[in-house]
Write a structure and sequence with these properties.
317 residues; alpha/beta; Aminopeptidase; 2 domains; 6-stranded mixed sheet; two-stranded antiparallel ribbon; elongated
Length: 317
Amino acid sequence: MINMKAKFKGRSKLKRGLFKTFVLVLLLLVSFAGTFKILYSNIKINIDNNTYLDYLVNDSFSKFSLSDLTSLSSTEFLLKYSFGIENFNSGINDIELTSPVVSEVETPDVTNKEPTVYIYNSHQTESYRSDFAESFNINNTVYLASHILKEYLEDLGISVIVEENSIVDVLNTNGWKYGSSYKASRILLEQAKKDNPSLNFFIDLHRDAASYERTMVEIDGKKYAKIMFVVGLKHDNYGPNLELANNLNERIKNFNPDLTRGVMQKNNSGANGIYNQDFDPNTILIEVGGQYNYIEEVNNTLKVFANILYDYFEELE
């Protein structure tokens, strides 16, 4: 009887000890999590646009891995760079930050000082998928995409201007609503041509609002944002615009037919139907990906498109 009581007391003591240990471990974990949160909340990381653009175009980044910045959560970033813990699964490892393989061309320096290509965004604030990018002061918009395309074209010796003025400011100055964005960009378009008579090719870069399944394609293990041309038929001289869009679309199909969503012709009553393409026969509107595409996918596509434009310009000379 005495042995039974002793055994019971021993088991009770063991259980109490295990319970105390569990509580202690739980308190330590809660304390660690609280400290962890406080530490991260005091970390401020800002990446200027030029550094970010340089990484996307040149596949380089001076201090951190950009895949960490755009694909890791706050917790994972702190684990890696504050505690040195790298072996974890972020759950967002499907994007490769490498450039696409395109036909090799020599990359001359920009010898023509006068710009020939003008890139602008009638819908300047259209954005791409951000995930954690906003935590690092990064805005993935069509405006950034325009600068990416500029960098690739200038690497190929083509001098480019990207419109820096704000479409929203033009709208507000004139008391116009968002629906008048093409009227606003027309003002900037005409001013750019007046200031730079050498301009002879005009690109209005947008992104679509379609699903990810419609705007992304994987080619040889690399993800791209699909591209689509939009041509307005509500002006008498749309023929050359349509011919240009079809020409460039065929060139993209020669690279890979799955990269393009084709040429959309707009003539219905609900559409703008002109898109400033009456301004010049060499005015095009392109939709590069959609709101669910990553900027790395957009970058991959624009590198291909820059090479296609380069080949097209070379044949014109």
